[in-house]
Amino acid sequence: MIASTPSTATPAATPVALAPITDLSLTSLRQVVTELGHPEYRGDQIAAWVYRSPVGSFDEMSNLPKSLRQALADRFRFGALALEAEFVSSDGETRKAALRLVDGDLIESVLMRYPTRDDGTGAERSTVCVSTQVGCPVKCAFCATGLMGFTRNLGTGEIMDQALHFLRWSRAVPPTVRNVVFMGMGEPLINYDATMGAVALLVDAVGLGVHRLTVSTAGWLPGMSRLIEDKYAVRLAVSLHSPDDALRTTLVPLNKRFPLATLLEACWEYQARTGRRVTFEYTLLDGVNDTPALARDLVALVRRHDVHINLIPMNPVAYLPFGASRPEAVEEFHRIVREAGVICTVRREMGRDIRAACGQLRTELQGREPVRASTVTA
Ligand code: SF4
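# iron/sulfur cluster complex -> structure
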């Protein structure tokens, strides 16, 4: 069953000219407050209201002087996004929000709730998947977002407010969000500063552990080089999809510019620097990249490193010539990788009935067929 449930937690739209308060780092917030003639600690009080309370306006920040509340309202928007629609999967475990930006475009964010397993193991947990761009310039061949082309990067506030939308909701309906994955629309490492600005706020203002934040990349090497040096050692997920350069280039055109050898070298450097296991996402496409030979080639590429292979059954998308691998092919691929001693899981399918694959919902709500536009390849 699909239910559209607009939330009351998302603030209403405010004038376009004002930047969202969530665009500011904690340091900038303290600086703004002192420039407005108030002590620095007021910045931390504001952050506590914005990031750890359910309030939806500056006026509700009851421990701030009225003059400061008014000054903030004159200079900033409280929220960057307005909720267009929200859909809940029939099992209730996946919620997908279509969120409207001030310039009128739509982005998608997804909340995934994982219950305790039937055998009683595993903890209940909630994870939010956020978008970092409107559309995506990488243009992976099997991706609905790739089909729609690229419009623009999101700002830090626009990324943060996606996480806050579900964080606020989940505080009232536990389990509270503890994990954020930057795996929605867009290539996060192309939009590096805004993405890592959101990471900093999630750690320093919301209080999430940096090990609970995962940044996904299709292999944008300039961003990976910066990530290797970054003080926030997030989890790294790399969209691999093939152990073969020629095939990977057809699936992820970015591979032409940054082929597997250079991509993997950067992965191992990140691992050496951070001590973090690297996750490789591998979307299984029927008859394309799901053969036993490719499973063995994949093992050969990664077996000497601490990695996790996450096999993702393809979520079929209209307009795209790819289908989901047969269950026997998934099981065989999984078996080969696992029996070679590599940690390998098959991602549970979630939210298929609400078009949870990234880009699908936006395309439908925009009511237009996707187009191929600017691409990052060379
Ligand atoms: S899979 Fe990710 S990187 Fe590739 S086109 Fe889609 S959003 Fe962009």
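# post-check
Residues 136, 138-140, 143, 145-146, 185-187, 218, 239, 358 surround iron/sulfur cluster (CB under 6 Å).
Residues 83-366 form a domain with the TIM Barrel fold (CATH 3.20.20.70).
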